[in-house]
Amino acid sequence: MIIAIDGPAASGKGTLARRLAAHYGLPHLDTGLLYRAVGAACLAAGGLGDATAAARIAHDLDLTSLDADALRTAEVGEAASVVAAVPEVRAALLDLQRRFAAQPGGAVLDGRDIGTVICPDAGAKLFVTATSEVRAERRFKELSGRGDAVTYDEVLADIRKRDARDSHRAAAPLVQAPDSALLDTSTLGIAEAFAAALALVEARRAGT
């Protein structure tokens, strides 16, 4: 069973993916971390403007070396959105993500193009979203809770900029797959959102 979860930043897709993976006993991959790792490595190497270098970093990426906490900063998030628009980077990470999904028993993957590009034949697809204001409030609380010096207005502007970049890039833009179920978490708590997501997955598994 492959569960593909897509959606914009701070929509709640990662939390739901982790919970669904735990519920079904499946491995989980936050594909955004891959792009964050590439973006962070590019920043450390001196910049984001070298597509060839970014693709080389992506090609050599080791899943076991990812430090999720260190990759959750606002700066790395912005860098991830930039490198994710580079076709060579996406191509380099394509096989890695598909091999993860092809594990015996299946997997849960969340990102921006799982249901459209990485796993178009996934048995269950969700597109998780929320208003930009709600998503900015969630991300602001997350970042300020870690001690990052950010304001709500800065986070909202960043959310909107990333939405525009992710949705309009030429390579694998963020769009809802025609056969995915839409889940708007704007007014839902975590427990409510998970119950809704689980019901949608079960409906897909039952063929309804």
What's the N-to-C terminus distance? 16 Å
**Main sheet?**
5 strands, parallel
Alpha plus pi helix count: 9
What topology, given as strand order, has the largest sheet?
2-3-1-4-5
SS strand fraction:
5-15%
| Structural class designation | alpha/beta
Shape type: globular
Low-confidence stretches: none
What level of helicity do the residues show?
A: 40-55%
What's the β-strand tally? 5
SSE string? EHEHHHHEHEHHEH
Radius of gyration: 16 Å
**Could you tell me the mean pLDDT?**
94
Features:
five-stranded parallel β-sheet, 9 helices, 5 strands
Brief rundown of the structure:
The chain is α/β, with parallel strands linked by helices. It has helices at residues 13-24, 31-45, 51-59, 74-83, 87-101, 114-118, 132-145, 152-168, 190-205, and strands spanning 2-6, 28-30, 107-111, 124-129, 181-184.
What can you tell me about this protein's structure?
By secondary structure, the chain is α/β, with parallel strands linked by helices. It has helices spanning 13-24, 31-45, 51-59, 74-83, 87-101, 114-118, 132-145, 152-168, 190-205, and strands spanning 2-6, 28-30, 107-111, 124-129, 181-184. Helix 2 packs across helix 4. The longest helix has 17 residues, at 152-168. The mean pLDDT is 94.
Give me the secondary-structure topology.
Layout: E1 2-6, H1 13-24, E2 28-30, H2 31-45, H3 51-59, H4 74-83, H5 87-101, E3 107-111, H6 114-118, E4 124-129, H7 132-145, H8 152-168, E5 181-184, H9 190-205
Parallel strand pairs: 1-3, 1-4, 2-3, 4-5
Helix pairs in contact: 1-9, 2-3, 2-4, 3-5, 4-8, 7-8
